[in-house]
Amino acid sequence: MTATQFHPIIPTSSRLGETKEYYFSTKLRELAALRAAGKDIINLGIGSPDMPPAPEVVAALSQTATRSDIHGYQPYAGTPKLRSAFADWYDRYFGVDLDPETEILPLIGSKEGIMHISMAFLNPGDEVLVPNPGYPTYRSATELAGGVIRDYRLSDATDWLPNLEALEASDLSRVKIMWVNYPHMPTGTAAPEGFFEALVAFARRNEILLCNDNPYAFILTDSRKSLLSVPGAKEVVIELSSLSKAQNMAGWRVGAVAGAKEYLKSIIRFKSNMDSGMFRPVQEAAAVALGLGPEWYDGLNAHYRRRRDIAFRIMDQLNCTYRTDQVGLFVWAKCPAGKDGYAISDDALYNKDVFITPGGIFGDEGNNYVRISLCSTEERLTEALERLAN
Amino acid sequence: MTATQFHPIIPTSSRLGETKEYYFSTKLRELAALRAAGKDIINLGIGSPDMPPAPEVVAALSQTATRSDIHGYQPYAGTPKLRSAFADWYDRYFGVDLDPETEILPLIGSKEGIMHISMAFLNPGDEVLVPNPGYPTYRSATELAGGVIRDYRLSDATDWLPNLEALEASDLSRVKIMWVNYPHMPTGTAAPEGFFEALVAFARRNEILLCNDNPYAFILTDSRKSLLSVPGAKEVVIELSSLSKAQNMAGWRVGAVAGAKEYLKSIIRFKSNMDSGMFRPVQEAAAVALGLGPEWYDGLNAHYRRRRDIAFRIMDQLNCTYRTDQVGLFVWAKCPAGKDGYAISDDALYNKDVFITPGGIFGDEGNNYVRISLCSTEERLTEALERLAN
């Protein structure tokens, strides 16, 4: 049968109707095509750490893989060793006490957790509070699970924090989940004093499951915070952690969801019907990564600080303006009057071979912004700066 | 906050209402508890190969992991190298020609593919033909995606094959997907001559997406078959493959879905919003595993043949009767009159410390059957036999 004879007989689900392929999935294909055509594209888009994990992490993978007895299916809830490593890490860095038996569920990356949570808690028509701008996956997972998106709008004028009073003045009776993510991507906003407490009180009053997506907790900040540290939080909070960013393990796909046993049980009811436990050598390596001391994070942040300085200069070159107190793996900046983020991104890609993420892909509140990832070397960032200056 | 003060405020989705935690997820916890209490349980339940992958597969993992540039996010559709390795493997072992660019999508194990396919194609209320007995995940994925299960009943009297004529005499207008799985788990039935052709014709006439789950293609059979080899199949067939069984990589989580570009595009629209590409060292190792020659499979099957002989004797000991022409990783047998599979399983577990899977967990057509996995050594199988004889 040749390709021309083919026509697909079975239509797709209407739940895919509004959901596009993930932006970076299509964008990376375009960049690959440009590279195949001979272009040396500098990709300042995706937040995929370019540095390797700690050597002892890689060694734990290889050592475990040589064992003959570790290649079978692993427990759905992760090995006890990995769960304990997550609990110890929570205790050491966030001051949060978790039962490794019941309050930690390792994930194949925290991204899958967003879908698991949506599928485990949403009924069709349930509303979900989603940040605009914010990580696009909160939005697509909500749609795919049959939920209804309610944007909560963030802006520079309100320091990129939600207006909880205004939200509470609206009808929240159908809201089941609120996604929050501080340190916030893409704006680099850290949670200010008292904000997490206000969030938890808001969620308790309105019986909303507050899901904090927390992959950037360690990057360019020494003030590490878990939403679970707020007294009473466990009744309404679950939190996603990831080894993608601060442990340089994005491709390894390791994360966890933490929270009350009852909530995690619901999530595993969905998850155990869809996948299986993680590859044992990856679990052993992840446990080593979670045991890394503060010096690991300090060393990482020394790199990111130097890179951020160059990223600021790139933003200057683009006549974009930014806050200097941003945290996390990106620099977020406002476009000059008369240009939006898409125009600046297209101009940089097609004329200078530099890919910068347009802020609008995170929601229309980001239309007049661009985002630069710090996951390139100082040399590449400097080269991007030079290209944009010419 | 102590545990006693806690009550979960947010209820779960009603889609979880009918879906239990996956049977083996809870059962493995029970076995772990019995072991913790000092029992030496012989687990003849789950089909998790106990032998390691080929040494060159493990070496590829370790070698790749030492590279510093492979720890970031990987392409959503897998590396070109892994997709080509799957296409070459399909060509070599199944005589099926696939475009590695568009007709292969690597998966984090084929199990997740069952959920991706269900989510990508089912609208609420769409009907799904599910084998009874069959792999429980077809059933739970259908429910979780909002579909309606329609059992097609298999029995020893009809050689464990669906009665397509009887199905076609019923109203199939709402049926969107049919799950098939030959070699069939749990019954060990191989697809007879002409059966795949009849299935494809049935699916084309009724505009049903025919999903063949094919993890057992290599085990205890030399007649390897792909449903995609039937002329015209690509218009209605997608097929799941797995490295879990025949490559001894169950814990690694590698599989693929193969089929027409248009169907795979729909699947990736869901999948790319939920996860990311697989760990690069695992992809490199999987490509090596797919390149293994027939001698690898011959070596594996020599083990499984010897183990199957012991499993037959265990079934004799239990007064269960079976076909000797079974293929795949299990032995399926009928209980003696007056006992069902649950009674035999409980008796073996609680009195002899041997876990045997009750056939009823695969659907009520399996109630009077039990299943023994061949994923234990000859020594352990012999010990189980001896325990049951005493």
Please tell me about this protein's structure.
2 copies of one chain form a homodimer. Chain A folds into 2 domains: 145 residues, Aspartate Aminotransferase, domain 1; 236 residues, Type I PLP-dependent aspartate aminotransferase-like (Major domain) (Aspartate Aminotransferase, domain 2, 3-Layer(aba) Sandwich), CATH 3.40.640. Chain A is 38% helix and 14% strand. The first copy, chain A, contains 12 helices and 12 strands. In chain A, the strands form 3 sheets. Chain A has a 7-stranded mixed β-sheet, sandwiched between helices. In chain A, strand 5, helix 7 and strand 6 form a beta-alpha-beta unit. Chain A is globular. The model of chain A has no long low-confidence stretch (mean pLDDT 94). At the A-B interface, helix 2, helix 4, helix 5, helix 8 and helix 9 of A face helix 2, helix 4, helix 5, helix 8 and helix 9 of B.
How are the SSEs placed, and which strands pair?
The structure is a homodimer of 390-residue chains.
Chain A: H1 23-36, E1 42-43, H2 55-65, H3 80-94, E2 104-107, H4 110-121, E3 127-132, H5 136-144, E4 148-153, H6 164-169, E5 175-180, H7 195-206, E6 209-213, E7 237-242, E8 255-259, H8 261-271, H9 280-290, H10 294-317, E9 330-334, H11 341-352, E10 354-355, E11 357-358, E12 369-373, H12 378-389
Parallel strand pairs in A: 1-10, 3-4, 3-5, 5-6, 6-7
Antiparallel strand pairs in A: 2-8, 7-8, 9-12, 11-12
